[in-house]
Each structure stands twice: as structure tokens, then as C-alpha cells.
Amino acid sequence: MTRVLTYGTFDTFHWAHMLLLQRARAMGDWLGVGLSTDEFNAIKGKTSVFNYAERENILRGIKYVDLIFPERTWEQKREDIVKYGADIFVIGDDWRGKFDDLSDLCRVVYLPRSPNISSTLIKQFIKTK
Ligand code: C2G
User: Fold this and answer.
1) Chain centroid to CA 64
2) Structural domain boundaries enclosing 11
3) Is this structure's pTM higher than 0.90?
4) Residue of 36, 32, 34 whose CA lies nearest to 67
5) What is the DSSP letter of 113?
6) Of 2-6, 106-110, 120-124, which range is least confident?
7) From the CA of 94, how far away is ligand 1's center (Å)?
8) What's 101's DSSP letter?
9) How would residue 129 be classed by pLDDT, with cut points 50, 70 and 90?
10) pLDDT tens sequence across 36-82
11) How far is residue 129's CA from residue 124's CA, in Å, rounded to a whole number?
12) Which of 22, 46, 54, 80 has the most CB atoms lying inside 10 A of its own CB?
């Protein structure tokens, strides 16, 4: 059984998030998602439109996602990989290189980030309405 982990805020859930989760899940038999808490978002310098509970509720409805757990720190990934027995860590290549240090524990894969869509763009578009 190949177990995959990914992490993110997944605010204003959109098709690129879905594509990422779909591709991540397709790399194995199980996908766990470390969902950034509102507090961790602040550490990441992000504010999300939807809070953790609302974002988690959306991910719960996605068939590619087998487990959702809070992402509270940058450092927890190593512990999570061991805890969940992850074989692969996947994330968009906007993070290319940033998580190579995990490669002693599991395969690290950076997937192409989808162009022309982001939670920021969606928020900006709504403001102009
Ligand atoms: N993503 C993508 N294409 C986009 C936007 C996002 O492929 N146009 C991917 C990101 O690369 C990431 C996932 O979708 O793999 C979630 O994106 P965000 O919610 O923006 O997550 P981020 O803020 O990058 O958090 O510790 C890791 C961080 O928590 C990642």
C-alpha cells in the first residue's frame, strides 16, 4: 500500500487544488492532507477567507482524500511521514526544493503548479464585483 502525504491551506477551493489532490492520490493508494490551521496560516503570512473547519469540511467531501489532519508547524512533516508511514510527499512545484530534506524519509515529488488560478486571484476578482 503506497501512502501519500500533501499539505496546504486549500482556501476558496478551486480546480487546481482538485487537480493536485487527484494527482497526489493517483500516485498511491491512500492520501493524507495536512491542512494548515488558521494559526499556521498566520505564520505562513496568509489569511484565508474560510476558517479551518470550513476548509476541512470541503476536503472531507473529496473522494481523493483519505485523512485530514491539522498542519500547525513547518517542522511536523518529518514526524507525520513516520506517523502515517508515508512513502511519497507531494506538493506543487512553487515549493520546488523546499522539502528536499524529507527525501531521506520518503520520495519527494513537486507537481507542476496550475497557471492563472489562486485563492488570491479569486479574492481579487470577488472584490471587483
Ligand atoms: N496549487 C497548484 N496550483 C495552483 C494553486 C495551488 O498546484 N494554482 C497547489 C499548491 O502547489 C499546493 C496545493 O495546491 O500543493 C495547496 O495550495 P495552497 O493552499 O496555496 O497551499 P500552500 O499555501 O502552498 O501551503 O507546508 C506546506 C504548505 O502548507 C503549503
Assistant:
1) 12
2) 3-128
3) yes
4) 32
5) P
6) 120-124
7) 8
8) G
9) confident
10) 999 999 999 999 999 999 999 999 999 999 999 999 999 999 999 99
11) 9
12) 80
Q: Which helix or strand (DSSP H or E) is residue 123 part of?
A: helix 119-128
Q: CA–CA separation, 127 vs 129, rounded Å?
A: 6
Q: How many domains does the chain have?
A: 1
Average pLDDT of every residue of the chain: 97
**CATH number of the domain encompassing residue 45:** 3.40.50.620
pLDDT of residue 16: 97
Give the Cα separation of 64 and 60 in Å (integer): 9
Ligand 1 nearest-atom number relative to CA 116 = 8
Cell numbers 514526524: residue: 79
State how far the Cα of 8 lies from the Cα of 34, in Å rounded to an integer: 6
Instruction: Give the helix/strand (H/E) hosting 108.
Output: strand 107-111
Q: Is 76 in the pocket of ligand 1 (CB under 6 A)?
A: no
Select from 113, 29, 109 the least CA-distant residue to 67: 29
Nearest CA to ligand 1 atom 11: 92
Q: Is 63 labeled as catalytic in the residue annotation?
A: no
